[in-house]
Amino acid sequence: LRLSSLQPQEISPELIGLWHDQRLCPHFHLSLQSGSQGVLGRMKRRYSLSDYEQSVSLIRNLVPEAAITTDVMVGFPGETAQEFEESYEFCQRMKFARIHVFAYSPRQGTQAAQLPQQVGDKVKKERSQQMLALAKESVHNFSQRFLGRTMPVLFEQQSNGVWSGHTANYIKVYTQTTADLTNKLLPLKLVEVKNDGVWGEEIVEM
Question: What pTM was estimated for this model as a whole?
Answer without folding.
Answer: 0.91
